[in-house]
Protein 1
Amino acid sequence: MAIPHYKHTVATRFMEYVQVDTQSDPNSETQPSTEKQKDLSRKLVLDLLAIGIKDAHLDEHGYVYATIPATVDKKVPVLCFCSHVDTAPDCSGTNVKPILHENYDGQDIVLPDDNTVIISTKDHPYLKERIGDDIITASGLTLLGADDKAGVAIIMDMATYLIQHPEVPHGDIRILFTPDEEIGRGVAAVDMQHLGADFGYTLDGGERGHLEGETFSADAAIVTFHGVSAHPGYAKGKMQSAIKAAADFVAMLPKDNWCPESTEGMEGFVHPTSISGLLEKATVQLIVRDFDTKKLSLYAQRLTEMANTIMAQYPGLTADVQIKEQYRNMKEVLDLHPHVMAYAEEAYLRAGLQPYRMSIRGGTDGSRLSFMGLPCPNIFTGEMGIHSKQEYVSVQDMEKATEICVHLAQIYAEKA
Ligand SMILES: [Zn+2]
């Protein structure tokens, strides 16, 4: 055991943090998107100061930075542990009432404030692996916010342990709590210079043992159709409807391949996320995803060919396809620094867990951080059923993740 006789603080911290409403808002232009996220961030600064971390502070963009000072003199790479304070806009995060189900017995969990909300072992088979653990759920009216307050609480628990145990050898450790991860803007205003870390780990994964070092590469595509307008009473031979062109374009998209509904594992897809328009101009927005970045340009080419086909059917109508880069597969960066994953695997093993390298069919704050110069895979937290009223987390999973973070800090010091 890396951390014998330690009374973990992770569960009590977690139960406090989830009660603070930190929902982010994709329709807001401010940074952070909602002021209320700072309610938790301010509390985290106070908690960090209370532990004895002197430089903890919240900046004007909503980021919390703090340093656990090195306990060794030799030069050790600066590690960053990162998690996000916001919760998903998909489900209410107001008045979250966390419930601790001690020594979980393997039965379906019926939530008291709405007994139609049932966390069943059929829908959540991972629960069966957690029999005997202490499980925390919400009460049926809201999400829980384990995504990612589990990560926040784990990092706070690690900080508590390391400050109480200066005999544990480690270099400088930077803590970063971000806002707005759920709306894809988590690292938009992070000050990398100020952060000053060499390698990072996000705490935002699910099942115990999972270690995520690969994400999608992601582009957005905007396909715009410019129609030819005319008075409908006198439009014969003149009018070309952008609305019909856009609808035909969407109808051309496959439904049994190359789409989220039909792909899994390492398969990529394109996915229309919005359609809007008038006679003169209609726009289809899509997301384009694959683990292999090279394939994104092939997908863009295929979309352009489809738009050209539509153009040929509507003489006088024009179409254009615009591609915007969103994020890239972190594996491209991590492969240049193989020790980042290898040390994490060693930390899992020292904590008695078999590590499983997983790929995320999505992105993380770490995808962007990796390309901003901070190679940053994702460690599990136990958060499950996320973005829903059925969200839950195992206390023992969170404690295990704390232990892994402590091991990681030690491993970097040993190998330096
Ligand atoms: Zn998350």
Protein 2
Amino acid sequence: MRILITGNMGYVGPMALRHLRKAMPSAYIAGYDSGFFAHCLTTAGEMPEILLDAQRFGDVRKIGAGDLEGFDAVVHLAAVSNDPMGNRFEAVTGAINHRASVAIAEAAAAAGVRSFVFASSCSVYGFAADGKARGEGDALNPLTAYARSKIATEDSLRQIRLNGMTATSLRFATACGMSDRLRLDLVLNDFVACALTSGEITVLSDGTPWRPLIDVRDMARAIEWAITRPAERGGQFLAVNVGSNAWNCQVKDLANAVAASVPGTSVSINTAAPPDKRSYKVDFSLFKQLAPQHQPQETLETSVAGLRDGLRAIDFGDHNFRQSQLIRLNVLERQIERGRLSGDLIWQ
Ligand SMILES: NC(=O)c1ccc[n+]([C@@H]2O[C@H](COP(=O)([O-])OP(=O)(O)OC[C@H]3O[C@@H](n4cnc5c(N)ncnc54)[C@H](O)[C@@H]3O)[C@@H](O)[C@H]2O)c1
């Protein structure tokens, strides 16, 4: 098995690599990344790329057919990867997240790749005031450029000639958990960082909004499944919610789980806040039915413990972490300020 992972030098990529290396020890695994966050390591150990057979540096907007020759699977993670970045770089988000993704899928199909795995997001559902868990058949309600780019890619993947390749769009819940390149612009990760640095978690809402979460290690399990699934299991193209119903959590539960794991942490909840409409639950039953052997294994407690121990291992104590390079948007802004990246996110 020969696997190409794009965007392997971000938050999810290192954990996907570690899992695939273990699950498929004899696989040839290569990475392809622009290296925007290559320097943002959060590990006390070796850098994850030593587990690769090859690392290429390049922009996915320029990947050609030749780059995909000989691979059996493409795991496409490279993206402008959250709402704040998508809002700041709206046109670039369309170019990287949608147009480049479709071009890579088309080139992969033409090159004889057998499976294409696309990292989509549950944010395609938007928020849902009615409290009903969203399933794959429900209407989509993208509220941001980021969510729109994921839907546009799914729509295109449904239409292009797949030439026998399976294309799996994994609509991941919000990620959490420790990684070799941790990001702190994610709700649970942010809470753990707050607990460790200030001993205080401030929940701006009344704590009742629902958020579906998934640990990065469980994202990796789902990626392995998508690489290997036969077309009969879900169809040639499949869009599936990835997470578990047990991980539909309320924000106050996340804060309390972190406080329980980091003694001395206080949680303040704004009980006077007006009801937060940014609440949604997701139905993960289809994923459970299709991938019974690759279901999430982590719990809120193991995820929080992994973050706590991982951050302690690197002596993390930055009270100002929201201004640091552990927030993706800060890194891009600083590279642009220094003239290293253009406003279109191209290395100068
Ligand atoms: N983190 C989450 O909560 C979450 C949830 C659902 C889906 N996803 C999706 O999973 C994927 C990985 O997310 P992540 O958290 O690791 O993101 P990340 O921002 O940490 O990493 C993305 C990687 O892609 C690379 N990249 C970006 N643009 C590129 C380009 N033009 N050419 C080459 N490389 C490029 C970056 O250098 C980076 O290494 C993304 O597609 C994201 O949208 C993430």
